């Protein structure tokens, strides 16, 4: 039977759309199911404020009467204005290993984008950098970190055979946590703190962290300007994102450096890996998923670095080393073995050099694709 593509509208179609990844990846050993509530909220205008200034569409593919793939198209008008671009994005892409199914889904988004006079399609990308980015192309034998895509190996072949080529790669480093602080780090830290009136904030409780989370996200807005595809968070999104991070953050794994005027100069935020707990919970928090996730997290030996930034006029002055020492000490007290850097743009050579210095190496790579229309 031919592939049938529909734009989801009915309750049954939406149900098939949301459930498809869970059924397709049922026996996919390292795949981490996203929370179903977040999946639904992603396409709900009442819960996702990015949709206020974006056009979106969701397509579902049926083959032999059964769901066989899905895709979402996004035109973020605010992002296109900021970057002077006319791009549509695709995300949430799933397909059986069948060229006709993949082609039908991708061409549906492409045609939708052409009607809206877009010049190209890029993806997988969501509304912002806070959403999962890029198909994994290296590191299929490694457990993904939270908020990253873990696709079947055949997916990138389907994408490339449909005329898509590389836009940009994101690298993930595995960084061993040393037993002791390297002497060089100590020397750099001492020199930095002598030359600059700074203090590093460390936390013991979530209550202590809470007043700083919104400040950190506003600081991220200021420092991420110019990073590929970045769109500043609105104030409402800052509030929502701060609440989300407050739920998962370990106060011992957030470090903030302030100057003598109480301004943020840099920060780093990490969590103990929670992906195994998400697997065991099957993408659901209720009735017991939350407790499964928390219990499993305590056994993890991996520290996932989620966010970090340094104010432009303080880059290259050693603040990263000061934060690294504090993070290493906290990680050792928690008996963690290594850090996962999360996504780093391949063009960000300065950060990569810092990750290689303690013995870090690339162990996962994600790729964003593009196609001219």
Please explain how this structure is put together.
With 373 residues, the chain is an alpha+beta fold. The protein folds into 2 domains: 4-169, Aminopeptidase (3-Layer(aba) Sandwich), CATH 3.40.630; 178-336, Aminopeptidase. The protein has 12 helices and 14 strands. Strands 1, 2, 3, 4, 5, 6, 7, 8, 9, 10, 11, 12, 13 and 14 form a 14-stranded mixed sheet that branches. β9 (254-259) and β10 (264-272) form a beta hairpin. The chain starts with a strand and ends with a strand. The mean pLDDT is 92.
How do the helices and strands line up, and which of them pair or pack?
Layout: E1 4-7, H1 11-24, H2 36-42, E2 54-63, E3 66-76, H3 77-83, E4 87-95, H4 99-115, E5 120-123, E6 135-138, H5 155-161, E7 165-176, H6 183-195, E8 198-201, H7 206-223, H8 235-248, E9 254-259, E10 264-272, H9 275-281, H10 289-297, E11 302-310, H11 319-333, E12 338-340, E13 344-345, H12 349-356, E14 361-372
Parallel strand pairs: 4-5, 11-12
Antiparallel strand pairs: 1-2, 2-3, 3-4, 5-14, 6-14, 7-12, 7-13, 7-14, 8-9, 9-10, 10-11
What would you say about this model in short?
The chain is of the alpha+beta class and 373 residues long. 36% of the residues lie in helices and 27% in strands.
Q: Rg, please?
A: 21 Å
Strand content is 25-35%
Q: Which residue ranges are poorly predicted, with pLDDT under 50 across at least 5 consecutive positions?
A: none
CATH class of the largest domain: Alpha Beta
Shape from CA axes? globular
The count of strands amounts to 14
Quaternary structure type: single chain
Judged by helices, strands and strand pairing, the structural class is alpha+beta
Number of domains: 2
Q: What is the name of the CATH superfamily of the largest domain? A: Gcn5-related N-acetyltransferase (GNAT)
């Amino acid at each position: 039977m031919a592939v049938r593509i529909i734009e989801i509208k009915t309750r049954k179609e939406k149900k098939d759309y949301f459930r498809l990844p869970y059924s397709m990846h049922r026996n996919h050993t390292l795949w981490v199911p996203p929370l179903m509530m977040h999946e639904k909220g992603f396409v709900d205008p009442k819960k996702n404020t990015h949709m206020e200034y974006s056009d979106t569409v969701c397509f579902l593919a049926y083959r032999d009467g059964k769901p066989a793939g899905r895709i979402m198209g996004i035109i973020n008008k605010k992002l296109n204005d900021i970057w002077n671009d006319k791009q549509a994005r695709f995300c949430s892409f799933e397909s059986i290993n069948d060229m006709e199914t993949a082609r039908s889904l991708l061409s549906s988004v492409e045609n939708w984008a052409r009607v809206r006079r877009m010049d190209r399609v890029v993806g997988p990308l969501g509304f912002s950098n806070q959403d999962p980015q890029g198909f994994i192309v290296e590191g299929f034998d490694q457990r993904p970190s939270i908020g990253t895509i873990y696709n079947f190996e055949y997916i990138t072949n389907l994408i490339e055979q449909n005329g898509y080529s590389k836009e940009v790669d994101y690298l993930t480093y595995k960084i061993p946590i040393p037993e002791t602080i390297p002497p060089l780090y100590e020397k750099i830290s001492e020199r930095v703190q002598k030359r600059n009136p700074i203090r590093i904030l460390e936390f013991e409780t979530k209550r202590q962290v809470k007043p700083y989370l919104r400040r950190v996200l506003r600081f991220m807005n200021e420092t991420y300007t110019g990073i590929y595809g970045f769109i500043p968070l609105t104030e409402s999104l800052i509030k929502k994102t701060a609440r989300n991070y407050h739920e998962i953050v370990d106060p011992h794994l957030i470090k903030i450096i302030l100057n003598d005027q109480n301004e943020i100069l840099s920060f780093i935020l990490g969590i103990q890996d929670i992906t195994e707990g998400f697997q065991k919970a099957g993408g659901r928090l209720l009735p017991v998923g939350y407790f499964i996730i928390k219990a499993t997290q305590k056994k993890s030996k991996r520290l996932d670095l989620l966010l970090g930034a340094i104010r432009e006029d303080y880059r290259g002055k050693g603040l990263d080393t000061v934060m690294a020492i504090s993070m290493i000490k906290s990680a050792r007290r928690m008996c963690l073995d290594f850090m996962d850097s999360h996504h780093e743009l391949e063009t960000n050579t300065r950060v990569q050099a810092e990750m290689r210095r303690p013995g870090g190496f690339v162990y996962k790579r994600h790729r964003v694709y593009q196609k001219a229309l």
